[in-house]
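Researcher: Next entry in the queue.
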Amino acid sequence: MKKQLFGSEKIIVHTADLTRNRNGFEQMKNKAFREKVYRVLNTTMKDLSYQALGCVIRKDEHLNRYGMAALDPYHLSLNILVERTYFAMGRTGELHIVAESRDSTLDRMLEIAFLEIKVSGTLFLSASEINKLGIELHIRNKKQDIAGLQMADLLVSPMGRYVLGKQMHADWEVIRSKLYRYRGKWEGAGLVVFPK
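Model: Structure for this entry, 196 residues:
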């Protein structure tokens, strides 16, 4: 798809670059080309076989509600996503989490939060239940051209727009159709918003 649209498989799909017409996406300034790109992206994301899980932390509300006891939003979302993934996987299999590297300090904090989950579990899952998955964390740089990180990047903005009540685009309908469902509902299962 990248070669078809941009003439290179080496280009890294990044929403910020797509919307700002930079880092290989300069052609996006052309309206017709831009529309074609989004049409192809939506078709590709619709045709691929995957389930999506997302977590949105309303940081200000979270801090106001829990004060000094408020968990770091990235750690909290990791806990929630591990729980939801565990349920989506039917409590069996191997879970490899691939997180995008941010910087050495934040990456180390994520590794520590991950180890805490492995040792202490989460609010709803014991450590032994989680560790049955053979759970692993891999922190990778976006420049490594990992398809899953690029797909995840395309999921984030539409989820955020939905939670913020902004105007929705065709990409949201594609993503909504891919969200994990529990008892037919994706709210609180495939997309968790915290605090409720």
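Model: The first strand starts at residue 54 and ends at 57.
Researcher: Noted, moving on.
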